[in-house]
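Lecture 7, part 2: worked example. A protein chain together with zinc ion.
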Amino acid sequence: MRRGTILALLMLSACIPKVDQQTADRPSKVPIVEADAATRQCHADLTRDAVEFKILPDRRFGGGCSALGAVQLIDFGTPVTNLGAMTCPLARAFTRWTKQAVQPAARQWLGSRIVKVESFGTYSCRPVNGQSGNKLSEHGRSNAVDIAAFVTEDGRRITVLDGWRSDDEEVRSFLRAIHQAGCSRFAIGLGPEANSLHADHFHFDMGNGPYCR
Ligand SMILES: [Zn+2]
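Predicted complex, written out as structure tokens:
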């Protein structure tokens, strides 16, 4: 091989994102899997919804954890903190929930729009409720998102923790409205009524539902 070619190859390999050991140890002939029809449709839906996103390469981690058919949301009109890999159906439900439920509810109950949603993240390789022995959480499949707070254009910060049982009836109504809307858009919706582990956030996932609490 000519020196230039080798250099080019070296540079190319340096560009390949670092993957976990399990994947790295496999032979290099892992086929590139085309996105299936449902995932392609989901990408098309995001594009039609004017969502800017990046398609992430499929990744399998240890312990059954994965990011398959996942995307990274870049911009869909409302900034959201801490979003990592999300399966495309989760991203589609989440962006629609934010645009079609959270923003209208904020206008209705808070008289302002939401300029920032604060999340506790998406991907996390852990059992349900973080308790060993439980089955793998949908977070371990990049199929869940935890939402903790909302910042309004007029400068308020509404947290699930303080707002759910707030003295302010409009804050309570806002949070209940979007929790309920989440339940109808995601497979599973959990909030402060579910258990004490969800006192400070809404958990939404696209696993086996429906379940709403
Ligand atoms: Zn969660």
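Helices lie at 3-15, 21-24, 37-48, 88-110, 160-163, 169-185. The chain is about 35% helix and 20% strand. Keep this in mind for problem set question 3.
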